[in-house]
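Annotated sample (chain length 274).
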Amino acid sequence: MINVIVDGACGRMGRMIINGIEQAEAMQLVGAIEASNHPHLGQDVGEIAGVGRLGVSVTSDLPAIIDKCDVVIEFTSPEATLEHLQNVVDADKAMVIATTGYTDEQMRRIQELAPKIRCVMSPNYSVGINLLLKVVQDVAKVLGDDFDVEVIEAHHNMKRDSPSGTALRIAEVIAESLNRNLDEVGVYGRHGMVGERLRQEIGVHAIRGGDIVGDHTVLFAGIGERLEITHRAQSRETFARGALRAARWVVNAPRGLHDIDKVLFGGNNSAESN
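Output written by the structure step:
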């Protein structure tokens, strides 16, 4: 039996993951974490998630319950993730991180801490998105510098970070395939007299509105033709399933920081650090 604590348990993704745990075999929820000022503190998280009473109360004190678990699944804010990651390292547990929107300094801290435990980290746990990453890597290599590359993402109006972590990862993968440095060639939105598009640019653009779960399109635009590759998430359930799959995998994984690619496809893992 894999014992799980969910950080961000009362959020949309947290509730979806709790539903998934209740339907899963050999997996049980043993803790639910929220911010110290959250209105649902002390309440039964099963009732909040709509699965009925589970006997697991929402708390803000991860260190007090972390010994109960095998793995922590994290869908919170960058600040909370760093705090919780330190808690997990101190307790020598496993962790699945799905939070996005980190600063460079926060990412460096994660890369220092996460290799000390068994940890999977990804901006997107969808099988389809991770297959898209493999496809665009190959497409970029074939098309080379003859095609302009633009990444367009769309999300709901409550998403805080922009562009999405997934869009950034797509742009990074394409830049690596084209032997470019995204820090030098990335263009994030355009406004005003920006001049002609430079051949090396990789554009990344964000749309926010309504309840869009998550759309990502990669546009390769050449002379006389263009190729568009799109993934549309129709439900957050796809992310929850992927996170639970990662949780099952990581509890028996080698110590280190792993990418979801290793979980889903068993291939090379550029994020792994031992």
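Annotation: The first helix runs from residue 12 to 23.
Annotation: The first strand starts at residue 2 and ends at 7.
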